[in-house]
Amino acid sequence: MDKGREALDRKEIDARLGEIDPPVAREVLLDLLAGEISPVITLSRLLLALGWPSEVDEVLAEVAQNWGRPLHPSLHEVARLLQDHREGCERVATMLREHPDPDVSTSPAEDVIAACRSFFDRSVERHETASVAAYSLGDPELLARATREVVDLLERWEILGADRRTLEIGCGIGRMQAALAPRVAEAHGIDISPRMIEAARRRCADLPNVHLAVSSGRDLAGFDAESLDLVLAVDSFPYIFQAGPALAEAHFHEAARVLRPGGDFVLFNYSYRDDLTGDRRDVHRLARAAGFTVVVAGAQLFKFWDGVAFRMRK
Predict the structure, then answer these.
(1) 141-177 burial, b for 16+ CB within 10 Å, e for fewer?
(2) Which residues contact 229 (CB under 8 A, 6 or more apart)?
(3) How many Cα atoms sit within 13 Å of 109 on the Cβ side?
(4) In the chain, fewer beta carbons within 10 Å around the N or the C end?
């Protein structure tokens, strides 16, 4: 992300922040004040690190006291977002407390898939917007803005078009299908959560070129070989990664099977393990084994959320 005009040198930020507990919250604020992440991403990360909006309030008050006047505009914006989206932040905090462990599980893949299915069924029944993106803060407009960023990037990459057939793995409430429908011939979406697919079908009911289905989470069964032009996973592959290396490898080979020559396999986030070097290593290895060429290897291209982009071409 480009650093904003208000970004400061990290040494200056370090000195003005003072001591903040826990250290992970301090790191998040360092990234914000260095211009590396947006206030929206900052707030979602603070909720993940601290647990509840009240705890974020306490940290922001401590930061304001340490920083002095005038308070940095980005800190003002985080505080404003928290105030304006209090109820949504409470929903997001509740969801994050129940979130499956991001590390690779030692449980059988089927057990991990079942646990994720149950989590997303519960989450979408509580609140559709919050259930698919913590960085939305439960606000449909923030989610729409982040969705537009993804679609704009796909258009810049020139991989959409009136003749293209697309598939999203883990489509959630169908936000991507609704956004892609005017730009492609067919927009398919699959998800392991029946409740998510119910929500997606309501959202896309008036879009005849959108096709949605509940999936097993094991493969891309139901799609013929060389029948698609784009296979996309927006913040869903980390759950496949969590279920174990065999399932991640299977999905790379399945994507290669269903894509036409020249088709694209795009991941926005490979894992949640906070190891970009490891993610790049894994993606290169899996892509090579499945017959893909890596075009984009772990680039951070978004302003409104912290998705890491991988693009592979068959």
Answers:
(1) ebbeebbebbbebbeeeebbeeebbbbbbbbbbbbbb
(2) 159, 161, 163, 164, 165, 166, 259, 260, 263, 264
(3) 15
(4) N
pLDDT tens, residue order, the chain (314 aa): 444 444 567 777 877 887 888 888 989 998 898 888 889 999 999 998 898 999 999 999 998 888 888 888 999 999 999 999 999 999 888 888 888 776 667 789 999 999 999 999 999 998 899 888 888 988 999 999 999 999 999 999 999 999 999 999 999 999 999 999 999 999 999 999 999 999 999 999 999 999 999 999 999 999 999 999 999 999 999 999 999 999 999 999 999 999 999 999 999 999 999 899 999 999 999 999 999 999 999 999 998 888 999 999 99
DSSP 211-263: EEEE--SS--TTS-TT-EEEEEEES-HHHHHHT-HHHHHHHHHHHHHHEEEEE
In 3D space, the residue among 250, 285, 280 whose CA is nearest the CA of residue 267 turns out to be: 280
Helices within 68-108 (DSSP H only): 73-84, 86-97
The fold adopted by the segment(s) 140-313 is Rossmann fold (3.40.50)
3-state secondary structure of 124: helix
Residue type, 66: N
Does an H or E element contain 131, and which? helix 128-132
Q: Tell me how far apart the alpha carbons of residues 301 and 293 are, in angstroms, rounded to a whole number.
A: 20
Give the sheet arrangement for strand 210-214, strand by strand.
Answer: 210-214, 184-191, 161-169, 228-234, 259-268, 309-313, 293-299
Closest CA to 188 of 244, 227, 135: 227
The residue whose two tokens read 């799609």 is 223
Q: Rounded to two decimals, what is the model's pTM?
A: 0.89
CB atoms within 10 A of CB 202: 11
Domain boundaries, the chain: 10-84, 140-313
